[in-house]
Amino acid sequence: MIRTGLTLTMVLLLALALAGRAVAGGKPFSVEDMLRVAMVADVRLGPDGRRVAFTVTRAAPEIRDGDLYSRIYLAEPGKAGPRPVTPETAQCEKPSFSPDGTRLAYLQQGDDTTEAVLQNLATGQTRRLSRGQGDVLDLAFAPDGKSLAMTIVAESKGAASRNNDDADVEVLDAASGAAGLFLLPLVGHGGPRGLVTDRDVGNFVFSPDGGRIAFETTAPDGPPRGRRVTSASGAPAPGDAANTDIALVDVKTGAVTSLADTDGSEGSPRFSPDGKSVAYVSMAAPGFYFSAARVMVVPAAGGAPRALSETPDARPELLGWSAGGEAVYVREAQGTCAVIWALPVDGGPPRLVSDTPHVVASATLSPAGDAFGLVLADSSLPPEAYVTPADRFAPRAVSSVNKEFAGYRLGRTEVVRWQSTDGTTVEGLYTHPIAPASTPPPLLVELHGGPALVADRQYLGALNYYPLAVFSERGYALFQPNVRGSDGYGPAFRRANVGDWGGADFADLQSGLDALVARKLADPERLGVMGWSYGGYLAAWAIGHTGRFKAASVGAGITNLVSQCGSMDLPDFIPLYFGGEAYERFEALFDRSPLKYAAAIKTPTLFQHGVADERVPFTQSLELYTALSRLGVPTRLAAYPRSGHDVTEPALIRDLMVRNLDWFARYVPAAPGAVVTGMEQPAGDGSSAAGLSGGPPPADGAQPSGS
Length: 707
What we know:
It comes from Solidesulfovibrio carbinoliphilus subsp. oakridgensis. The protein has ten helices and 40 strands. It is 13% helix and 33% strand. The strands form nine sheets. A ten-stranded mixed beta sheet has the order 1-32-33-35-34-36-37-38-39-40, sandwiched between helices. Strands 2-3-4-5 form a four-stranded antiparallel beta sheet, with no helix packed on it. It has a four-stranded antiparallel beta sheet with strand order 6-7-8-9, with no helix packed on it. It has a domain at 413-667: Alpha/Beta hydrolase fold, catalytic domain (Rossmann fold). By secondary structure, it is mainly beta.
């Protein structure tokens, strides 16, 4: 935990040169503008370090029933700018250069499966490599470029039973849905050869000589950690937090040997440049959702692993080895930022590599280990792709997909700290409204999910279920607290809400609001709260324990820990946080459930939830919505079709944003003294969600749903 001798008043920490200042005098953000902000990811450098491929994901609001789509762009020396190399409306990801840099392999979503595609960069000709083989999850070129390794989920043979042409029966715990490791020759017409097909294979990497592949896996004879869910087509759905091990497979013989196998979890293997060692990330058992992790190094020939220095947050994302093999690079959350560290192989202390005030939103290492591909972003810096030498951090932009948003105005975002009720120092982000006010502004709280995630300085105008840039434009201040349980502040802080949801985390939220009100940065009579997933849980908990919020929006939130425990797709999640199953900890779980306190809730509450959500089942929203409806509390439940825990269709994302804007405008008016009457929801939001209403019929035309 972070403890200092600061006073109880708010400490304004940081005003970044770019990301912290308001962009004044520009264009105002609208929901439609936010739908056009591109997301950049997976920046990959070619073998010569000059060509760069990256993925750009955009919404397509003009396609009303469409989805987000991802294109792969290629930046080349001597060219005016990066060019797209995949179709505009396809979904493509995970670009991988061939060792000679002449070809690009990537994944493309088809009608029924995800396929591997190979493109000749000189001619643009493409070749589908895995037609009819099943869903390809990942791919990598062999060092000689003559073959491609792929993890493939073969089509299910037993998970679904067809009674007729229209009925599919999904069978839980069916012996199918595992991802096998296959090798596909790129010369000739041979099909993929199975290397590892008797167990589930995760991340994998070739040895420098191409003779072996290190991979993360689960023991084929080990007991299952929980349900495995497969779709009718055999595609895997999310499973339990995997207790993975590291193994090696001989590419010629297919012989598999174990390399790292403990009661904890080992993953993300990376060979050293000389092929003699393997680095990996080891996480302690049993709390995989919140436990500390550490980078280990083990001889590739087998032997005892040794630990490198612990990183500050103890949650390193392993990127790879330095060119000379003297260090490994990791990316990790650090407060409201994310940084790159170098960990010396001799056990020396971590060395900060990323000399930038901005958030390293994602990072990859070049094949030679001498350069990084990055995505940098900040509160007022839209995400773009960058490259930099590894030994001299000097990021150079290679994309400009969001250049138009440099002319848009945003509220000034600052990092804030305050002391919670027990003296623990807590941190968060505060965004000022665009227009300065003579009185304290209305304030909306956004609570992050996880709970072991973090509110970091991502671009305020980025696509979000909660339209932060538009709220700021309309006169609202924003508060994103990193309450106990958050990532980025060390392992003790991350574990601090184990068994204590709604305890110290809620106290952190309350004390943060008190500090903001005391600094006249928030109007105590105009407060709203919103959050998705665990953020939805904490929002629902808050309105059952305080009347200070005038409106709430609960997105895919847990409201009943008892029913959540046995119905989600991670059966070990609640037991690991609360020390037992629902039938063992029934009273304790219900005591920490927002549903138990429904009778105390008077706050008008909007629920939003995907009807196909397996992580937090739709019934979680339905339970508390039904209670509030019967209690006469103003409430709505928007049920999003075809959507799981993440809503990805642009038309539905637009509906999410507009409903949130309308809900808070009605119950937390930006103008002081505004009067709220009735509970009609403004029309004209372009809704395509199914509305469920309590109280008077909705004014937006949605019909109440029967049970």
